[in-house]
Amino acid sequence: MSSHATPDAGATGRKPVTLHRLREMHAAGEKIAMLTCYDASFARLLDDCGVDCLLVGDSLGMVLQGQPSTLPVSLEDAVYHTRAVARGNRSAWLVADLPFGSYEASPEQALRSSVALMQAGAQMVKLEGGGWTAETVRFLVARGIPVCAHLGLTPQSVHALGGYRVQGRDEAAAATLKRHAAELADAGAAMLVLELVPSALAAEIGAARPDLITIGIGAGPRCGGQVLVLHDMLGVTRGRLPRFVRNFMAGAASIEDAVRLYVQDVKAGRFPDPELHGY
Ligand SMILES: Nc1nc(=O)c2c([nH]1)NC[C@@H]1CN(c3ccc(C(=O)N[C@@H](CCC(=O)O)C(=O)O)cc3)CN21
Ligand SMILES: CC(C)C(=O)C(=O)O
Ligand SMILES: [Mg+2]
């Protein structure tokens, strides 16, 4: 064992996943595996299993708190779970959702909320919305805060959208989505979550902006990476699940095996299957 071992890498652990490394992976065509994570124990497990990115999603409102939507999640809630995940994580890239009401009023409000998440251990913040968020994205990026955008089904707008429905289905909506993606990329967003959009549209957005790392959830296999809600892919969530979910615990001998299978299947392009999970 070298006496010059870097302090960040554990004895057997990988090097920390940086934004630079994610861009290298994306440029080389390596798919990025992301999962939501809300606590220290799962953070350590997911990191050990090679998950590239952990997302402290505001889905925690539904999954952990039993809320009917993500709207009741507070910035305090997000900070609390980001702290926990940051303590358990060793090397995965840590993204935290800006909750509903914590960033919409102004770029300054978004900065204050983002500072709270970054001080809790996040390395990137994620916010939902189209072109109107570009000014805020530019403001945060200029101040050293990496930003992930989120288009398509944006659950914080569920009441305006009229339910958790596929977005960008007709030609006009698809054109708007493409324009918003370009505006967010121009504003400096490094990553873009595409949720519940037709696979062909997600592929087009990614092809138009190779500088933007697209992460799909119900957006088909031709994205730069994939994300799922942890409790969904582990078969913990009860009730009817979105079509894009696969239960990786089915046939797996352990949670670690299921998570490793997810990472392998994302990297190999085996998940998602366009027939089973696509729109
Ligand atoms: N546990 C959990 N998993 C999620 O993926 C998730 C959350 N919670 N909470 C926030 C949002 C809500 N999400 C949802 C919820 C329902 C559908 C759904 O039922 N979609 C239909 C498609 C409808 C259509 O065709 O327009 C489906 O069958 O997939 C999709 C995404 C995704 N997010
Ligand atoms: C599902 C992902 C993209 C998310 O925003 C969340 O978990 O809150
Ligand atoms: Mg979210």
From TrEMBL:
InterPro entries linked to this entry: Pantoate_hydroxy_MeTrfase, Pyrv/PenolPyrv_kinase-like_dom, Pyrv_kinase-like_dom_sf
Family, as annotated: Belongs to the PanB family.
Gene of this entry: panB
Chain sites annotated for binding 3-methyl-2-oxobutanoate: D58, S59, D97, K126
SUPFAM superfamilies per UniProt: Phosphoenolpyruvate/pyruvate domain (SSF51621)
Assembly and interaction partners: Homodecamer; pentamer of dimers.
CDD domains according to UniProt: KPHMT-like
Signal peptide region: none
Principal subcellular localization: cytoplasm
GO molecular function: 3-methyl-2-oxobutanoate hydroxymethyltransferase activity; magnesium ion binding; methyltransferase activity
Active-site residues from the entry: E195 (proton acceptor)
Keywords: Cytoplasm, Magnesium, Metal-binding, Methyltransferase, Pantothenate biosynthesis, Transferase
GO BP field: methylation; pantothenate biosynthetic process
Co-factor: note: Binds 1 Mg(2+) ion per subunit.
GO CC annotations, alphabetized: cytoplasm
Top-tier EC class: transferase
Pathway the protein contributes to: Cofactor biosynthesis; (R)-pantothenate biosynthesis; (R)-pantoate from 3-methyl-2-oxobutanoate: step 1/2
The keyword Transferase is assigned to this record: yes
Name of this chain's protein: 3-methyl-2-oxobutanoate hydroxymethyltransferase
Binding site for Mg(2+): D58, D97, E128
Reaction(s) the record says it catalyses: (6R)-5,10-methylene-5,6,7,8-tetrahydrofolate + 3-methyl-2-oxobutanoate + H2O = 2-dehydropantoate + (6S)-5,6,7,8-tetrahydrofolate
Cell compartment(s), UniProt: Cytoplasm
Pfam families referenced in this protein's UniProt entry, alphabetically: Pantoate_transf
EC code(s) of this entry: 2.1.2.11
Job description of the protein: Catalyzes the reversible reaction in which hydroxymethyl group from 5,10-methylenetetrahydrofolate is transferred onto alpha-ketoisovalerate to form ketopantoate.
